[in-house]
Amino acid sequence: MTKEQLEEYKSKKAEIQELQYKLDHLGEGDSMIGNSVINDYRTGHPRPQSVVGVD
Fold it and tell me: Torsions phi, psi of 43, nearest 5?
């Protein structure tokens, strides 16, 4: 294993731990939930549509 591979492994391991923490605390509070309004042109005229997602 080269030094570069080892550094990449450490970086990915830290990223996995960070993502796991975010998943474990996803339901706590509404700070990660966002909402936007887009215009839907499927009928030929703009209609506002709400889009809700996780930041």
Answer: -90, 0
3-state secondary structure the chain: CCHHHHHHHHHHHHHHHHHHHHHHCCCCCCCCEEEEEEEECCCCCCEEEEEEEEC
Within 8 A by CB and 6+ apart from 46, the residues are 39, 40
CA distances, 15 to each of 18, 31, 40, 50 (Å): 5, 21, 36, 31
pTM: 0.47
Q: What is the pLDDT of residues 39-55, one digit of tens each?
A: 999 888 899 999 888 76
Contact indicator for 34, 55 with CB cutoff of 8 Å = yes
